[in-house]
Amino acid sequence: MTSTGEEQGEAGAGRDGPLWWERRRSAVLDVGLGAVSAVECGVEGVGFAREAGIPVFAGVLFGLLIGSVLVLRQRWPIVVVLVGIAVSPAAMGFLLGVVGLYTLAASEVPRRITATLASMSLAATFVVMYVRTPVDGEVSRTLVITLSVFVAVALTVPPVLLGLYTAARRRLMESLQERADSLERELSLLADRAEERAEWARTEERTRIAREMHDVVAHRVSLMVVHAAALQAIAAKDPAKAAKNAALVGDMGRQALTELREMLGVLRAEAPKPAAVTAPVALVGSFDDGPTLAELEVLVGQSRAAGMIVELDVRGECSAYVAEVEQTAYRVVQEALTNCHKHAPGARVVVRLAHREGEVAMQVENGPCDGKAAEPGLPSGGNGLVGMRERVLGLGGVFVSGPTDEGGFKVSAVLPSGRG
């Protein structure tokens, strides 16, 4: 089945026509053209019957049949044009020939077929006009030839050109529609990807916030619990030491609240609304305001004050690292010490820090637990080691943890310096 401009209709309209018509309006138009063509050929059939010497009703019936073929113009445009050429010697089918050529040119029929049939129609029209026009002298013959050429061109070229224009316009509209659909799909895909990136950024920030909250709260609270247990044990025996432990608990609690308040203040701060999501936007402050390796001695001192035996071994020349490396190294040691308070009470702990060329290494190792020390009863969410691993791997470092041969536990990490 071929298609023409009339078939296309409005973009996106559904098929609602009978038989081969795409739309009901196209069917009504073709039936109307077929009726007009049938009437025209029926009237012209009277003259054809008289010239051919056949009954008039037979000529009229023949004309009606020939004219009604125009109804099939969208289904079989080649057939319509061939019928028009065939009946041209009978001087009938004017509308049939013109509309048939237009439909053929506007259809998807190969252009070589359209050119061939258009040439045949042009030649047939010229011959019929020349033969049926009386000639009187040399001047009259030239006039008849000129008139025949004019009529042949007028009945053939305009409908073909109009049909070619309609087909080209339809193809252009289809191409533009396809490009619009493609652009819409691309925009939808970009929107989906932007939403995925935004969701990924939100997930990453939630994970980071969870790690920061865990690091800020868990270590301080763990030390507070250890000091509170010691305070309870010596309250009656050594009031001076009990008062000192109580002061330490108060200081640690205030430090934890201060750090927690600073973090919540960053979260509550209103961030500027970007015009579009082009990259993950941090929801939490930068690393620049986090702890550094210079504060490691203070961190170890807090654990010593809580009764833990901690040895700090620093090797190599300390140099400034990027903020992410400084904070990550500090948090690894902090979380490892917190785990020692939770799971290895009374054990001896060694904290090693090595400054190397292009990297910094840290290790926290505890010996076997002292059987005399009681478990502090600190809750464990099981996310400490996971958080440390995520931090280290996120900076391209190496993280290893596991039990030692002596019955203790060891956490090791190596981070690139991030300089240059």
Overview of this structure, please?
The protein is an alpha+beta fold and 420 residues long. The protein has two domains: 5-187, no CATH class; 292-420, Histidine kinase-like ATPase, C-terminal domain (Heat Shock Protein 90, 2-Layer Sandwich). The protein has eleven helices and five strands, in the order H-H-H-H-H-H-H-H-H-E-H-E-E-H-E-E. It has helices at residues 5-8, 24-52, 56-68, 77-86, 94-106, 111-132, 137-234, 239-268, 296-305, 323-343, 384-394, and strands at 309-315, 348-356, 359-366, 398-403, 409-416. The chain has a five-stranded mixed beta sheet with strand order 1-2-3-5-4, covered by helices on one side. Strand 1 (309-315), helix 10 (323-343) and strand 2 (348-356) form a beta-alpha-beta unit. The longest helix has 98 residues, at 137-234. It is rod-shaped. The two termini are 69 Å apart. Mean pLDDT is 79; it is low at 3-13 and 270-287.
Q: How much of the polypeptide forms β-strand, as a percent range?
A: 5-15%
> Strand order across the biggest sheet?
1-2-3-5-4
The outline comes out as rod-shaped
Please, what is the average pLDDT?
Answer: 79
The topology string of helices and strands comes to HHHHHHHHHEHEEHEE
Give the low-pLDDT segments: 3-13, 270-287
Number of helices: 11
Terminal residue distance? 69 Å
Number of separate structural domains: 2
Helix amount: 55-70%
How many β-strands, per DSSP?
A: 5
Which structural class matches the secondary elements?
alpha+beta
Largest sheet: 5 strands, mixed
Q: What is the rounded Rg?
A: 47 Å
